[in-house]
DNA sequence: GTAGGGTTAG
């Protein structure tokens, strides 16, 4: 580097100082490079300014240059470079710098150096190193303790974080807003509202004015503890809520099952002239996706495009999921193909999108392409692709994938993976093989047995069901799902005595069945229907429509299938009960409400669609010449011209 | 040294 030699050291330093104060670091740098003698203070202020301006790479280059120049770094230098290495994720480099610091005779006991080092190790998840360094610091201060607390919460050691906080208070170190912001996150992660409330009280006492960050943490803490109304109260008292605060509230509402409120708060946020970012948009998209609100989802997609965020991986994955859950798989895959960078979550979302739409081949194809795409499968990938195989009845593909997990030494075969495989085998009718597989698991949990039980129901194997039920009861006597399953198995095989016994037993155990419900969105309004529910204002018209449909489809060969009535009624009443199943009511209402033949009817059901209704909808799609999409608790069924996308396998 | 995000069967 050419050095023309700026003559006066002190004047040069002052000039650089002035440039830095004006944030004109590039001009400062030009001058700096020209100086013949450079003082350590100037090196330090150049480095720390680069870091402040988030030009971390340049900061590190300068530090390396400094070492080559033979300058001996001091405490100020090290506290900056530790931060730089931690921001860039360079653990080895950071360790080297730590070593160099020790060799040069400096000590970590300086609280500035120590805190930066603790923060660096903590961010790398090296909590033991962080703790060792902090133990050497005699004069501990609030910054150091906060760095430790953050380190522990970010590494899932929330309980330990709280302990550090407690000791800190005991040692007479006053917590500030930074500390509260972090420690409240720990309470939220632990979902411990008692400690959370105590810390809330402490916060009120300790800080004269709340900072936005600590109040936002408070809001998040309440929503993670399931106390969303308290979050709303915290929010109401904000006068300076920023985008993070709004996003945290929206997220909290979604996590607490209040998706509609989340959307209306989002609209309120927009009216308040806040510009959403990728965080906000991925969160509201999740709300749309849970409720399968296509119209709203599309509006947000419009916003995403306007902001140029459609290739962002977080927003992209949320869009894929939303379109997948709304059954528009083509849109999901076009977003997937346009993503800037693929990662495992977006691939998993896409695979699961195919799984829900019954497109097992595409799901497996994408899974097989993953190595070529440079994306390593994780736990979720296997869950998604195995459930795709299960939905599509792809037994051999499923077996191949399951054994590839076994051979993949980076991923441990979990009980979730076994559950998927048991489901796949069971639904494909390989009940014994499924049972043998469960017996290979060390401590099989109740979920595995319950999964097999549901396969027994599909294949009407009462004997096996009884045997499996005993295993369930050993593990979890009051398992609601298993009791309902077994009682349905008895019902579908006409064993009404046993059904009655089960009902009495379930009543004694206070187990309740979740009633079936279907809904449809018409002109932005959701209409819900229960089986036999005649409370809808247009129920007379719905009844008429059902009658018209029945006549037409019976002419084409539809016969009600009373096996799907799970009550002890005579044949006539059984048919009547089938006739008013909630999904039929919703579809009849949908047909009444939209005469435009080119639009499809989209209904939702909270449980799985029943076999008779499935058949009924196939016929109806043919006579009305319209596409009908039914999303049940697990997947989509696209009915067109008498056929369903699931190929009758679900 | 601080607050907010995307996927998952049964």
From TrEMBL:
Query: What SUPFAM superfamilies has UniProt attached to this entry?
Result: TPR-like (SSF48452)
Report the superkingdom from the record.
Eukaryota
PPR repeats at which positions? Answer: 39-73, 141-175, 242-276, 343-377, 414-448
Q: Which Pfam family, any one of them, does this sequence belong to?
A: E_motif
**Can you name one GO molecular function term for this protein?**
zinc ion binding
What keywords sit in the KW lines?
Repeat
All copies of the DYW domain together span 557-650
**Which GO annotations describe the biological process of this protein?**
RNA modification
InterPro entries, per the entry: DYW_dom, E2_motif, E_motif, PPR_At4g14850-like_plant, PPR_rpt, TPR-like_helical_dom_sf
Family note: Belongs to the PPR family. PCMP-H subfamily.
Name this protein carries in UniProt:
Pentatricopeptide repeat
What's the source species for this entry? Macleaya cordata
